[in-house]
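ok trying this again, last paste got cut off
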Amino acid sequence: MKRKRTVGKTVLSFCLAVLLVLQTVIFPAATYAESVPDDYGTAASEADSPSTDEPSSVPEAVYDVPNNFVVMAAVPTDKTAVFMEANSTFPLKVTQGTDIGPGGTIQGRQAFTLKSEGLKVPVNGDDPNPTNADPGKYIQKGDWIELKREDYFKEVVLPTATKTLMATTDYGLKQLGTAYFTPSSIKIVFNGDDSFFNGIGVAVTFGFDTTANSDLNGIEYGDTKPISIFGGAYELKNPDVTPDYSITLASPGMIRWDQWSYRGIQPAQFVEGAIAWESTVSAFDQFDKTIKLPLDGKTFYTNPSTYNTGSFGNARGIYKEDSFKVNGQNVTPDIGADGSLSYTFPQGTGVDPKVEYKTWIPKESYYYEYRNPPGNLGRGYRDMQGVVELRQDSKSLKLAGQEISFAPDWIQASASYDNPNETITWKVTVNQYNKKGLKGLTITNALPAGLDFLSAEWQTWVDGVASEVKPITPDENSVYSFGDINGKVELVIKSKVTSGSDFRIDPRANWNLDTPGGIQNNDVITGLRPVAVTDEAIVTIGAHNFTKITKKV
């Protein structure tokens, strides 16, 4: 009986991301001169044969399917020697940006690609008499090959992956084997479909394509070593270290609301009146970030006075003296006339130093008054845009920035109307943040025309503990004085309606803080919010004795 020749090919690809890409295996049914049923229960005829006019990218293959063919049972065996004999000239392409031919140099600490195509898998079908093929010369079902790193790619580090090796045949997707990739070997167990091993399949090939790295143990920086990869000769170079840098900036406890880059200030920092900044500076090899380098002689630089001049910032900073630390130790930076800070890392600083410092929130931002700001602050509120920089001499090496948003709301005013008694009770709350150290707190609140003052009283809360309620009387300028305060204050004023129906108050709070140069004194005594710490409460007495309290917007 005349045997027809057809084609069979399997290509395996894998990469460091553990991805297998398989090409096609073609196993058409055996064809004979006369029409006969094949092993799959379908009829094939001479007309079913692939046309010789059609192009093929794979070698021819021979099929002979006797009716009584049975897959031989055998103990699985290591067929690495059989495989390598069939592939004595190992096809290999090395790429690192460009192709590297035999004798070329592979740069260490940089990924490269190994690609091999057309690796032959000797199977029974390749024998002139496939029904009586010597199982020791061909790969049988269950056999395996293992290409060990120690033998074939000693200085190459490959990925780890386990993948099923599938192949597309004329009869659907079938398993050829299972591939195991580890840093120590490439192992393929041929545990797939019988048709690959029972004499039907011939000229089976596969290939792999992987990114890899190099093992540079024992190679000094700048040195080159001859290596072998699957029998091919190459040079492996451990390049001189080329420094690269990174720098970060954050604020401890900052609040993240969404995907945007700005963050909310930690509440405790707002109460303190100073934003804490943390920056980690790093130097490392550009090809291998695990190779850490010292930062000796490099300079950390920032200028808080320009934190309001970035793309979004509107609040400048002022360096808080004695707050500068490196690796937890207080150090003294150089302070420029423009308020900038510079610190040059001395010898022995170590790797990845952490820099910490604080910036005061100056009064024009600290007392920029909002009413009931939302929990999720955007750039429409106060925004301090910190920027830090790593320098070498006058050259900038790396930059980093971080926006911190906040919205002061120091005072709240409200009112209620007592219709039977025709009185309005006004309530003014100051320092809801319970900040301590408010010196000489005053609340200025003049009653509008049509109201007579009846009485006023106040109390304060210190560490959550309320004081007794005390009466208080304003001076001739409607100023209520409370002295030094260490918590929230609530002032309640009662007034009698004598005429009119529309009434509004605009209470203003003022105090000083013990900060250098009065940079956080709340001393604006004219105007309304947001430039002054004021709030408003409006009462409208309608025709039906309806009381309306209008809140700030």
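PB: full thing came through this time. Residues 5-235 form one domain.
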